[in-house]
## 1
Amino acid sequence: MIEVEHLTKHYGQKVAVNDVSFVVRPGSVTGFLGPNGAGKSTTMRMIMGLDRPTSGRALVNGAPYRTFRDPLRQVGALLEAKAVHSGRSAYAHLLSLAATHGIPKARVHEVIEMTGLDAVAKKRVGGFSLGMGQRLGIAAALLGDPRTLILDEPVNGLDPDGVVWVRQLARRMAADGRTVFLSSHLMSEMAQTADRVVVLGRGRVLADAPIGEFVAAGEGGAQRVLVRTPAPDQLFGALGTAASAVTPREDGAFVVVGPDARHIGDVAARVGAPVHELTPMGASLEEAYMALTRDDVEYRSEAVR
């Protein structure tokens, strides 16, 4: 379990993390979301004892990380995949880490195979691609067979096969009763991986909820239905004010906000408007996230015209 209690971090006049509290429980995957500059990496570094908080505390399994005598067996972390001596081979790097904790060589070979590094294990890390560097970082995190896993952007640079592998790894670790805490900017992937999300914005907690509740809250209570009809004027004219918005899509369908699919179908039957599709639409994790964080984005891009 990870317990973050009123964690605050100042860098001079800048408040990077502002009174942040949340709990990451074992047996599930907790996603950590937020725009660039929201304070996610700083929070993870404070959990790992790499940054000292201005106030508050972070506990892992009931104790500060810095107090562990065998940290690799307690927590596996990927925060900076490139924090490896570039002249060493992947095998030598993992072997040196294992030696500090009395971890047998057999475990080194095990994590190399587990992370797909067999073919490059004896090659110098300096020549690794970003994706292979990520795999090495995850191998190091798994080396001590820890009960807690903290991964910062673990799928960065991975190919589709690697992305699926990380998802399955996280789910498998959680199913085994371990604590899994990971950040990612890939909303589609987080939607398939996380059971719960913690969202930061400008150093503050904006949301801490099961992912289903978070997405449902992002709908704002409005029904959305995908409609395909060759008679849009007839159908939508008959719907009148019941539809608060009708938005055409590039594929010829329409997104109708307001009435549910049954009501739209009843109106279509009454006025004789043919309908080829009526599909209720729920909000996506990305939509819920964007709606929540739109006022907390520190680095904003202009829309492309």
## 2
Amino acid sequence: MNLFLDTANLDEIKKVADLGLLDGITTNPSIIAKSGRKFTEVIAEICAIVKGPVSAEVLSTDFAGIIKEGEELAKIAPNVVVKVPLIPEGIKAVAEFTKRDIQTNVTLCFTANQALLAAKAGATFISPFIGRLDDVGYDGLELISEIREIYDNYGYDTQILAASVRHPIHFKEVALRGADCVTLPYSVVEMLFKHPLTDSGLAKFLEDAKKLTW
């Protein structure tokens, strides 16, 4: 399972990249707005660090606007993936981007039906938001299982990019259910390393090491 970081923070990106774990980046207008910087400049800087897919979201919701912005974003770097909302005009644009060999990430997916439409349009990635489904009383993890089964039934190449991941249990479960990729905030990446037995075991090893002669 590929690991993406959901951030526009260059320091966080560099830290995970240095670990050798980073496969890609997802961003959205809300994340980049927090930086207070120009949208395209931030995307360009991220692409200079990350060689894998970097999702950059369009702001328009009409077909013409999505196509125009998507083409501009795709020119920033060859690894830019145009992030498009799962609305009719967005799906129409995804089909057009597919004809032009522009990679796409269809975002704000909350049902298997929506995921099927995105795959039929040729989306490179589909982003089911599991945490947001949990927030309103639905089983976000079950959505990953449903999409996996449907895509496997028909041989769709669209990759399942699990999003809105809140904690390590989400991370483990989306891997078990066959997600191709997962995107995490930096705080969750940090959580993945932690276990009290790891901490206590390391402390014991370090204490015993003081008795050794090198």
## 3
Amino acid sequence: MLERHPGGERAIIVQLDFGEGETEDRLEEVRLLVESAGADVCAVVTGRRQSPDAATYAGKGKVQEVAAEVAAHQGNLVVVNHALSPAQERNLERSLQCRVIDRTSLILDIFAQRAQSAEGKLQVELAQLDHLATRLVRGWTHLERQKGGIGLRGPGETQLETDRRLLGKRVKLLRERLRRLQQQRTVQRKARSRSDVLSVSLVGYTNAGKSTLFNALTHAGAYAANQLFATLDTTSRKLWLGEAGNIVISDTVGFIRDLPHELVAAFHATLEATSQADLLLHVVDSASPAREQQMAEVEKVLDEIGASTVPQLVVLNKLDLTDLPPAVERDEYGKITRVRVSAKCGDGMPLLRQALTEFALEKLHSLDRSKMADTSLIPD
């Protein structure tokens, strides 16, 4: 796995604008990511370019500016809020004489720190190794260090070829372990679907308050913190809704803009539960000025994992940070589409339970109608 960042690293953030806009939002987000990884942000370098420089991403003048900040603040880590090519990463490290990581590596590192379950750790390691496969610049024979180095190498193999072969073997092993875990999940989901229990998944942008909402609904005591990617491992609990009976509600990993493809692929087994759900609670930080963009980013990931057609109920959370009262919004057919709540304070939570009860009862009634239709087709 990737080397971890020890706490107290002094980081310089590089944020360039290539015409995407939302520069301030992007800068604030990467600052939170760096702090979530355990580093101290001691300087920020910004700028504008038409396109990234092929060799150094930022161009000669901007690299010199970054080098000056590294020297002035005794920085030992440069974080570029963009995806870097292996060549750009190597060239920047040579010029700056310190470690350089891109946005993908930063997010992968946070995931590595937060993963708790065996499955979560496997998924993160697989994502890291997939990312590393294109940028082998250091030796990776430590993956099989317990077997010793001499004798591992094939005839005529260079060290790099050996590293790639060992990395490939490790990736294959991880994929097989995750495949078996995915099979177990599939069996469990089929058992739940046979019992006609409504399945609800919480989705949303990272730090929107999903885990706090999950705890408020289920009293599960899941870890919740004001930081990015506080939750990685999916947690499921039953929730009693009176006349609607029990439903199963699941807390899942948060999404973020430019979520590394390696992570989406590695966490496919976990995210598959989202695509199989009967209802998605799309939790939104209603106090965030970037909430519309964050909702759009969540929709992009849902589309990528095949969950874009699952019915959604939007939960506008963090009501305590706005001046709006708790409320329910309905469409022209009378169905609840949005609920305004504060999971932290409890305001509006009865309205959310009411919305879930309505959806669960409608699902039960549709199942009953379906069973009656099937029975009517049986010949006398």
